[in-house]
Automatic annotation (TrEMBL):
Lineage: Eukaryota, Viridiplantae, Streptophyta, Embryophyta, Tracheophyta
Organism: Brassica campestris (Field mustard)
Residues binding Zn(2+): H127, D128, H131, E143
Gene Ontology cellular-component terms listed: extrinsic component of mitochondrial inner membrane
Domain of life: Eukaryota
Membrane topology note: Peripheral membrane protein
Pathways per UniProt: Cofactor biosynthesis; ubiquinone biosynthesis
Cofactor: Zn(2+)
Protein name (record): Ubiquinone biosynthesis protein COQ4 homolog, mitochondrial
Main location: mitochondrion
Keyword Transport carried by entry: no
Cellular compartments annotated: Mitochondrion inner membrane
GO molecular function: 4-hydroxy-3-methoxy-5-polyprenylbenzoate decarboxylase activity; zinc ion binding
Amino acid sequence: MTIERARVPLSRWQQAAVAVGSAVGALVNPRRADLIAALGETTGKPAFEMVLERMKKSPEGRAILLERPRVVSEQVGHAWDLPDNTFGAAYAKFMGSRNFSPDDRPPVRFMETDELAYVATRAREVHDLWHTLFGLPTNLIGESALKVIEFEQMYLPMCMLSVIGGTVRFNEKQRSMFFRHYLPWAVRAGRQCTDLMCVYYERHFDEDLEQVRRQWGIIPAPQHPK
């Protein structure tokens, strides 16, 4: 499946302006997924280029780049029919329990080449698969912890900016829980696991969830302390 040709060519000054505007807007309204996406694209080109090179050196990564699978309903809908113990069924349960759709992600607009646009799209679309693998909720703590893992995996500046923005909005109890339990875990989890951008997840949907976690070195999120 090809990436939608919604890309907008930008000069360096225009990229800087979009990045600053998106950062300010995202801090004011962190629910604006389009602004967060624009920030990731306009500040993330070097990181996405490094991810692309790593994918080219990996057998599964090369297969992903060649076949360009998409995490959209048309291609992952069969996950809802898989046995309960499978990775695919866990993903379907995660999505269904939150009334999420695989088709909700905004399109990539500011990458210069088709190849980089696909890598950015892939990074965006596997986000909920990572939620499933690490057992992270979608609340403020869970999203901030996953951004730490994404930073450890891809070194995207947007991820660290999102963590900073998230911690600013924590209350005292959330801040204590995040820095004592979730941040140290997320740093370790992001460094210890395999290169997650080089995993062809769709080929493993029918495998046991705990088996793929072990295979990829996934450390599940800590339980909420009593």
